[in-house]
Amino acid sequence: MGSLSRASKTLKSVRHFSLTHPFPSIFKGNPLYTRLNDHHFGLSHGFCSHPRQNSKENGIDLSNYPTERIRNFSIIAHVDHGKSTLADRLLELTGTIKRGHGQPQYLDKLQVERERGITVKAQTATMFHKHNFRGTDISDVQDQPSFLLNLIDTPGHVDFSYEVSRSLAACQGALLVVDAAQGVQAQTVANFYLAFESNLTIIPVINKIDQPTADPDLVKAQLKSMFDLDPSDALLTSAKTGQGLDQVLPAVIERIPPPPGKSGSPLRMLLLDSYYDEYKGVICHVAVVDGMLRKGDKISSAATGQAYEVLDVGIMHPELTPTGVLHSGQVGYVVSGMRSTKEARVGDTLSHSRSVVEPLPGFKPAKHMVFSGVYPADGSDFEALNHAIERLTCNDASVSVAKESSTALGLGFRCGFLGLLHMDVFHQRLEQEYGAHVISTVPTVPYIFEYSDESKVLVQNPAALPSNPTKRISACWEPTVMATIIIPSEYVGPVITLCSERRGQQLEYSFIDSQRVFMKYRLPLREIVVDFYNELKSITSGYASFDYEDAEYQQSDLVKLDVLLNGQPVDAMATIVHNLKAQRVGRELVDKLKKFIDRQMFEITIQAAIGSKIIARETISAMRKNVLAKCYGGDITRKKKLLEKQKEGKKRMKRVGSVDIPQEAFHELLKVS
Amino acid sequence: MLKSTFTPVFSLFPAKPRTPKLFYYSNITNTFKHNPPSVRRNASSNTILTTSTTPLSQLTPTSAYIHLPFCRKRCHYCDFPIVALGSSSNQPDDDPRILNYVQLLCREINATKVESKTNPPLQTVFFGGGTPSLVPPKLVSSVLEVLRLKFGLSSNAEISMEMDPGTFDAKKMKELIGLGVNRVSLGVQAFQEELLKACGRAHGLEEVYEAIEIVGSCGVENWSMDLISSLPNQTSEMWEESLRLTVEAEPTHVSVYDLQVEQGTKFGILYTPGEFPLPSETQSAEFYRMASNTLSDASYNHYEISSYCKSGFECKHNLTYWRNKPFYGFGLGSASYVGGLRFSRPRKIKEYTGYVQNLENGVADCCGNDSVEPKDVAMDVVMLSLRTSRGLDLKSFKEAYGGSLVFSLFKVYKPYVESGHVVCLDEHRRVVPADELSTALLDVDRIEKSLAYIRLSDPDGFLLSNELIALAFGAIAP
Ligand SMILES: Nc1nc2c(ncn2[C@@H]2O[C@H](COP(=O)(O)OP(=O)(O)OP(=O)(O)O)[C@@H](O)[C@H]2O)c(=O)[nH]1
Ligand SMILES: [Mg+2]
């Protein structure tokens, strides 16, 4: 234990590292991952002699696993570097799942994850593994000590880095997976720092070494130069062929320290995540930090003071497996009769009702980068959408939701998201998991406007900003991000051009190795929200990687851009843009609408305006003819079907004044940057 | 050959006594002479008034549509259930396909259930196709005979037949008149040789003039000139010419169909609506306006979206459609509306044969017993009546479907009354100005007092009828 606290103290001192200093010289000679190598050897022996208590549910007796026999680790990496596939292999290796049974990326359970081939939600799985420390001489596998390993597979995409930081809070170590061909990428950097700042032991895993273009030595060099990770500590694996995988769990057990919890102290557990199950109610994922939890215990939330009885407790193995108990250092689930996940606050501390404990630090709240309106596609479905959103936010607590209304779209919600992919995934889950069809308004970032009387407003919905304000606006601020871009050096020119078009300011420029450039930019969040990454990928033939974290607000020349149909502003289409871009964006919006609004019985004028100044205008001439002359032989059924289809089409439209706007028009506007 | 195959048709119903009015040729001519058009029109609107209290659809049909699917070849725009005889069949009189079909058709008519013996006789019969004029008059006669025996046939019934130029001569025309055919719908389609060719018509311009001459010389007083607008490569000049020649031919009725490019037709493969060589949407709207103006100037009433007539010469048969009244349908692919149920027969001969067999065995029933939602009927009524210049009769509509439906209809239509697409009329058929409508809309009772009809304007409202009717559907079934 002593060594543990010492190790974390050493790490505390380097905590202030920020992304603005990507190559901290302090790293030199700080072997983060080797500090606990052979410490538990002696301990493991004593517990082996304990008789197995198979009376416990499912034959799993967690009391056999004191903290010394527990390792909690996350798998972190850049997008697609193979985290989930590596997790599969480890689950198979430990017999947790059967080889070749389940689907690949077993832990990616959501339909969106399977369809998009990405992880959006961190998933925990408990495994058991027998291991012999180096130097001991137990030849019979039966006699080798068994370890309880909690693996957390995390998402790689920048939008979900919040999931990564929460996962890391339950871990003492992380496998930093790097694709042997792609090398260090932007999210590798970001996730490394998340783990590093959380004082975790980092085990570099160079994966996909089976690829013909794999260059593990180059990657080792990058890891050394960027993170000061010792090349000899890197594991070389292929999650595809299985090569090198036998090295992974021994490294986890030997290098990562056990959880620091005190089993004798009163119960304290960290609420990591929660979701709603139709049958069981709210299911909480928890990390027991101190003490022990049993089925039937009375527990209380530090945040709400609410008390609950533990109805079921167990581990994710990888499916929910009741164990009746969780010991300190263990990660598992708790069912406690919570009725809504609003009661289950991620980051909350749960303890026994009778005891008074110091709450755990918890998490800093998720930062919402983009906001957009979410409306039922069919106006009458508000209640259904309300219900769907309530349910989904139970399983995705990182969305903020507030009711709002729009003249064009009726009653709906203003939602805050971690990024555009997160928004997309949220919409897709609403549709797939809850059958709700939605219209989203153009995403916006939160702006701050200051009036001449020095009052300030935070604008999350452009429509809320008066188009012709009575008070003069004296200043506006927009959020910025600190962006990391890693590219092969031949693309430097076009990328710099792109960043300056996006009003970016270069802060750093350096070489990772002879071919790769690392750049840091400060960019207005608005500029990267929609299509920056796609653009970046297309000008670099897909080689660029990109990551960002939020930074401070900067003063900016912003205007509100209204869209008017037949002179009437459509609140759901208003946006806030930089003055210099207003003309182009206005033109694009008007053109898109012209393309997607059908001719109607009247002429339609489409305008984009700043205040009372029209900056773009188009007209859609009136429909000339829509008549089926023939109604032959009295056979009207076909014609009626046609007209009914036409009616249904109208029903799906949104009406502003006398203009029917198809839903696609709203969807298309999302693509205007 | 002909005789031997023909006999069985009659042998299907030899036991029934022949009705006394078997030879009523003189009656028919009398109808023409002594029933001035205005009287006939009044008679038909009276029927509407007297029956408006009982649901029209529940009455026994007094109209029958007969499908005679034969054509020499398929026109390039046609997707109807037809049987192309091919050019080899120069002697359709002997064609066994026609003969067999007519036998089957007569079996269908005979197998149809009739509620009671005291039903009113048929008032209209419409032979559509196909090209009914290809069918030998003897066979037409047998069909009429079966109809008369089965349902009764009013002595002054309107019996229409679609006839194509080049498929009949004066002799045939006279024979048909002798059988009781008293209204001809002449499929001229265009007055330009190149357009006739381009749409795959089996006749040329010469046959068109010949046919008009025959119809006139045989003394058919009530005939319709059928035209198609918006054909490929059709110019305004051509359309103007067609309209002018139509007016000069002095038909009592004109049908103007806007070309519909249907999937699976030759045109459907070749052309995209609104794109060259088809006229643009703007131009084809212009064609519609030209027809409306030219024919109105020549004192034709534009009484339905695609129909014009001299006063009193509405097609009575088609009026049953627009008034949502019941009608029988017999033959391949034909639609019927009996007992409140719409039914379409199989469009392929093989399936249709099976259907007739089942009908005879009592296994099939063309009117089933599914229930129809009142809303569905309300939509039918709106859709059909808004095709006519008479428009929707608000009083009977309200009685049948309730005042709130009328109210929501007005709410939806208000902007279109203001824009002139929709016209409100009082009980004297005077136009109610848009601003008066706003006050009328304040409460439901006022609507009833000041408004009696609602119709689509000509040509603006008619031109956008799909859009406007779809809006009405939205008001009826939101
Ligand atoms: N050739 C090769 N392909 C691999 C290996 N490991 C993973 N892959 C493939 O790489 C792709 C991405 O793998 P994932 O496991 O989904 O990657 P991930 O890091 O979990 O991705 P995110 O969760 O979206 O960040 C998949 O197509 C895998 O089959 C490997 O060792 N060799
Ligand atoms: Mg994954």
Automatic annotation (TrEMBL), chain A:
Protein's name in the database: Translation factor GUF1 homolog, mitochondrial
Binding-site residues, GTP: 77-84, 153-157, 207-210
Keyword Lyase: no
InterPro entries assigned to the protein according to its UniProt record, in alphabetical order: EF-4, EFG_III/V, EFG_V-like, EFTu-like_2, G_TR_CS, LepA_C_sf, LepA_CTD, LepA_IV
Membrane topology: Peripheral membrane protein
GO annotation (BP), single: positive regulation of translation
Domain of life: Eukaryota
Ranges that cross the membrane: none
Keyword annotations: GTP-binding, Hydrolase, Membrane, Mitochondrion, Mitochondrion inner membrane, Nucleotide-binding, Protein biosynthesis
Function comment: Promotes mitochondrial protein synthesis. May act as a fidelity factor of the translation reaction, by catalyzing a one-codon backward translocation of tRNAs on improperly translocated ribosomes. Binds to mitochondrial ribosomes in a GTP-dependent manner.
Protein family membership: Belongs to the TRAFAC class translation factor GTPase superfamily. Classic translation factor GTPase family. LepA subfamily.
Gene Ontology CC annotations of this record: mitochondrial inner membrane; mitochondrial matrix
Automatic annotation (TrEMBL), chain B:
Residue ranges that the Swiss-Prot or TrEMBL entry lists as coiled coil: none
InterPro entries listed in its UniProt record: Coproporphyrinogen-III_oxidase, Elp3/MiaA/NifB-like_rSAM, HemW-like, rSAM, rSAM_horseshoe, rSAM_sf
Gene3D superfamilies to which the protein is assigned, alphabetical: tm_1862 like domain (3.80.30.20)
GO biological process: one example: porphyrin-containing compound biosynthetic process
Highest rank taxon of the organism: Eukaryota
Assigned GO CC terms: cytoplasm
Family, per entry: Belongs to the anaerobic coproporphyrinogen-III oxidase family. HemW subfamily.
PANTHER family: COPROPORPHYRINIGEN III OXIDASE, RADICAL S-ADENOSYL METHIONINE DOMAIN-CONTAINING PROTEIN 1, MITOCHONDRIAL
Name assigned to this protein: Radical S-adenosyl methionine domain-containing protein 1, mitochondrial
Lineage of origin: Eukaryota, Viridiplantae, Streptophyta, Embryophyta, Tracheophyta
